Amino acid sequence: MIKRAIMTGVGLLCWLGLGQSFAATYSGPMETTRWQVDASVFACRMHQDIPLLGEAAFARRAGESQHFYLTELNRQLKPGNAELLSLTPRWRAIGQHYSVRPLPIGEGDVVSLDWRESQQLLQELVDGRQLLVRGDSWYESDTPVNVVIEPIRFRQALSEYQSCLAGLLPVNYDQVRRTSVHFPGGTEEFDDIDREVLDNLARYVLADAFITALVIDGHTDGLGLRSENLELSQKRAEFVVAYLTERGIPEDLIEVRWHGERYPIATNRTPTGRAQNRRVTIRVDRFEPDPETLARAD
What we know:
Blueprint: E1 3-6, H1 9-16, E2 24-26, E3 36-39, E4 43-50, E5 54-61, E6 67-72, E7 80-87, E8 96-105, E9 111-113, H2 115-126, E10 130-136, E11 144-149, H3 154-166, H4 173-176, E12 178-182, H5 192-207, E13 211-218, H6 226-246, E14 254-258, H7 271-277, E15 279-286, H8 291-297
Parallel strand pairs: 2-11, 13-14
Antiparallel strand pairs: 1-8, 3-4, 4-5, 5-6, 6-9, 7-8, 7-10, 10-11, 12-15, 13-15
């Protein structure tokens, strides 16, 4: 439940510990503090630098949900429990200030909130409110640490961030690097669900300039003659190759192989196991560029 209190001036400073000499407060100056957006089809980040501490960021990777992160480069907050507060901005004389929620402070990303929780923070900032993380110092438990996240120029950045979200790919590399499609018994065509899987894979590969190869392997279950299974696994693999090249994947990027029943991943004694073995797998190889290469690409 949200706790609410009306405070101004000295009362607010005392409530937050901001008016005490032992409190450490991290906040950027109004003149230079702003939200910035890093946008691509692979990920969207909207972030604010917090001088001498780190940054606050809303981030969403293609194929995943949005998260909010508070990251410290200069460690100040002690791992454990902290509190998230919503404040009337300091340029307003009177307003309402309240506790939003308890906040766990971790070891890596100091704060990491999921989609639902991050949406609540977005709304607070859209309403022009400051967010304040209040916790204990890692070096002295009796010393409070206050981290202020400003709403300055937030709506303009949010519009750019939302435009980025609308253009994200449906999947990311981790989701396509090992892909499988499955086939009904005795056939060389897959269903609509697997078509969507391959459509998403093709969109990702065409967008990522650092993809080096697609290795496609055809397999069957253990029913039937080995020679027939080898031929069927070839047809399945080539069917997938044709599907991807029709969607723009260059043929010289593709290596195709077929193995028949040779490499089962489940038992061939049950219908469920045989269904798992009737597959074509796609391995997506990618060159991992160094930061300088990425900077030149941008």
